[in-house]
Fold:
Amino acid sequence: MQAETVKIDGNSSFDFDRVENLLQEFLGKKGMIVPILQKIQEEFGYLPRPALEYTAKMLRIPASKIYGVATFYAQFHLQPRGKNIIRVCRGTACHVRGVSKVAEKAQEILKVGVGETTEDLKFTYEEVACIGACGLAPVMMINDQTFGKLAPDKVKTILEKF
Amino acid sequence: MYERQILICAGTGCISSGSLQVHEALRKELQKHQMEDKVRIILSGCHGFCEKGPIFIVYPEDIFYCEVQAEDIPELVEEYLVKGNVVERLLYKDPVTEDAVTSHQEIPFYSKQKRLALRNCGVIDPENIDEYIIRGGYQGLERALRMESLDIINMIKSSGLRGRGGAGFPTGMKWEFAYRNESDKKYVVCNADEGDPGAFMDRSVLEGDPHAVLEGIIIAGLAIGSDEAYLYVRAEYPLAIRRLRTAIAQAQEYGLIGENILGSGFGFKINIKEGAGAFVCGEETALLASIEGERGMPRPRPPFPAVKGLWGEPTCINNVETLANVSLIMRKGTDWYSAIGTEGSKGTKIFALTGKVNNTGLCEVPMGITLREIIFDIGGGIRDGKKFKAVQIGGPSGGCLPESHLDQPVDYDSLTSAGAMMGSGGMVVMDEDTCMVDLARYFLSFTQSESCGKCTPCREGTKRMLEILERITKGQGVAEDIPRLQKLALAVKDGSLCGLGQTAPNPVLTTLRYFQDEYEAHIFDRRCPAGQCQELLTYYIDPELCTGCRACTRVCPTGAITGEKKEPHVIDEEKCINCGSCAERCKFDAIKVK
Ligand SMILES: Cc1cc2nc3c(=O)[nH]c(=O)nc-3n(C[C@H](O)[C@H](O)[C@H](O)COP(=O)(O)O)c2cc1C
Ligand code: FES
Structure:
């Protein structure tokens, strides 16, 4: 199917070529919705609605099915996100070692709630279940970097590095 | 020839404590001393002792340095590598005797362990297949290639190996089911979703010894007659995924994966699938749905995956640690393996020991060891001289065991009969400051938000239970809440479709069983004995300790603290909103709760 033949209403400004290109390697294979969504998110930083609708048409499946998958998994985001992603661990080891106070502090400094992005799009604040560095609890990740043995008064200095 | 080898841990824990900077500094410093060709640096996988990271071991002497930072490197190189003087301040110190220990074998954290699945973790460079092979790697596969499928299966059966992913199902039996279901296409799936929040053993095995898992997967394929595998890894484990990709490429190059493995005519392919962040996807039928690209929702069993699995084909699903044991059993033999452990539980189990113990980290112990040995010998007892209260085993599906169970042997059956379960191997230790009602609430809020919503008992039942627990921790509990919780818990356990719902009530049931008095204190006395539940605390100032520095009055948002400068202050209970800001600010520990 050609890119031009797929019509998505009211989104003339959206760059469908970018979606088209990354779909190529997946066409004709089975079980590809999750990897495709991962790729789209890698490309755009989130899942733009037109990209999902376009994907549905290319795969000849209902868009609702793609939305169903996209909203099931914690990894996928339907809104744009900040430049830096903060993931505060809410796992058991971190819970027992008092991550709640660290989480409160981070939210207070950034003035955001869980899943929200700061106004300047610098940080998105998320909470996850276990980063797998429980030996260093309490733990948070910023992008791919892990910070362990946290305390509420360490949060500010760490955030200032970004 | 290298005179020395230095192992620097590059597991996730040590990297976050700065081990890559240590590596960089060491490289530079060796260059400066022109010692690059005398000392070989290996970035290894996890040593388990993450708390004391970055870990830095020098061979052949086996000197164990811990908490090494980049700034320490010039001194370490100059004093130790050049002059041969051990740098005492970087050695491990026994928390009780304060004596410095040089070799890691002398540290109690290691001496009680039996590292089988972790045999290579922290010992080899996980990105170099040769190091795995030198230590006997792929010999199990070689042996298996010369055997009939049923003989491999019988070997695993008689080893007594049981699944390490949760339920403890005998691995050989599972393989036999998949083997007996004839089909042109079969799959092996390795479950590396590791959803238990508070556990990281699979992560460490994958990061530290990826080939051990790959070898186990190929042997499983050979046994059941499959030619393709999927490795389903959590997306939160980017390093594990990267090391697996490297390992697969190297194994392919060596003819250990791909067509016609080692000239045997057997071909095998391994694909990696990244999970996308849903706890329920660790459940096997949900995991299969997720690989197929669907919403990861479980379906009723039977049919079991061994009959109808991935894309409807017979599929054998095993956990990472199970498969890492398989490759060892194939190499070392059944008798050797089944001599370790207890009657019903053979071999070892890896636990992620965390919480309020002195030594947190990964430990692998023979089955049958007691909880006391794990917590007090390996874990070094409770931090800050506090008192042990409970240990939570098995994650959100497991339970909390009190002090009276400390001498209980750790094996599948005795843990289950105590109301906990082996689960994945998370072991979180709690002291007197942990509120058991709040802990039950914590686990339930986890399972409740991870419930996929397909079946009613789990979706609605966990929500109602959570509401009750929240109410109790807020001091609004009523007398009927305890029987109501019990009734709901049993209904959810009996009525749920998959293991998530069937086990979700366990943390509530065990805390009710062993710590009912704490529930009662919350409900009838409006008191949290552990001093954790904010709404139930009363803050007061100890006049003996208060210096009247006024720091607390400045942070109190409601102006509840009054007093003259340099005189003891008091808190007005009417105005206090229990935010705890004052206690955090006080430098003299004068603000207490009751
Ligand atoms: C809610 C739920 C979560 C699970 N999570 C995991 C997991 O993270 N890793 C795992 O290996 N098994 C997990 N399991 C167990 C799997 O369903 C399955 O039994 C296991 O992977 C089989 O491997 P084994 O026989 O080698 O243990 C989970 C089960 C349930 C019900
Ligand atoms: S519980 Fe926080 S990293 Fe595991």
Summary: Residues B 163-167, 169, 174, 191, 193-195, 280, 282-284, 317-319, 322, 424, 498-500 surround flavin mononucleotide (ligand 1) (CB under 6 Å). Chain B has five domains: 4-111, 129-338, 348-431, 436-524, 537-593.
